[in-house]
Amino acid sequence: MAAQDGGAKMAAWARGVRGLLLDISGVLYDSGGSGGGVPIAGSAEAVRKIKASGLKLRFCTNETQATREKFVKKLQGLGFDISVAEVTAPAPAACRLLKERGLRPHLLVHDDLVPEFAEIDKTNPNCVVVGDAAENFSYANVNEAFQVLIGLEKPVLISLGRGRYYKETDGLKLDVGAYMKALEYACDVEAEVVGKPAKAFFESALAEMGVPPQEAIMIGDDIVSDVGGAQQCGMRAVQVRTGKYRPCDENHPQVKPDAYVNDLAEAVDVILSQL
């Protein structure tokens, strides 16, 4: 079935909903600039409407350039009603995985994310964790991670997402997936992805809401990580035409959203009209 534009008249996709998962970057705001980002028009009000409606809500992000606390504080400063407890993010999930499996990571991550791993043993690493390290993706740092991996008898590479690029206020930026693929290729290893589009990541967000997948909708700007990942879990997924969205997404060979909307505000208005 072809995806439809999300008008109220054609809103079968919006019915029977008890919970919403929202991507953050490209849906709530565009990151970058001196203030740390710019809210997308109508998005803060849309979040307030969701909360007033009684629908369950989780913010589902692959953000790995800051701790959840710091990231949420920035969003609150931009006018969003959001708390740390409402955010599902890759770093805490990765920490749980590392502890469960007795893994000691070499970190190739952004400096501002390092505090998330404060309680993890990092001596004598037996795996590599890669996140969106931004300027820390120097040749020396990527090569150091490669040397750790290639020196392991059974290399373990954990990636906090696998996005190709994301949008900031001054344009598109390479994301963690590009560097993950370089390490995979060099070490002949397949990364374990913690974060979107991994099924376990969406399932944990649904469990936190207490909503089954068929009663939840994901709203995101990434055709693969947001839309494709959510649909593989049995959720409906809507793509916004903000953030990293490009018109060619609408001709994606594998992923077809349940609907397209111009922005979060439009999606929320249609969903609330069906309650």
Helix content: 25-40%
**Looking across the biggest beta sheet, what order are the strands in?**
1-15-14-13-2-5-6
Structural class: alpha/beta
Taking pLDDT < 50 over at least 5 consecutive residues as the criterion, the unreliable ranges are: none
What is the averaged pLDDT score?
A: 95
Could you say which overall geometry the principal axes of the C-alpha atoms support?
Answer: globular
Task: Give me the strand/helix succession.
Answer: EEEEHEHEHEEHEEEHEHEHEEH
Assembly type of the shown chains?
single chain
* Total number of strands: 15
Q: Mind describing the biggest β-sheet?
A: 7 strands, parallel
Report how far apart the termini are.
24 Å
Taking all Cα atoms into account, the compactness measure Rg is 18 Å
The percentage of residues in β strands lies in 15-25%
| Count of individual helical segments | 8
Descriptive terms for the model:
4-stranded parallel sheet, 7-stranded parallel sheet, 32% helix, 15 strands, globular, alpha/beta, 275 residues, 19% strand
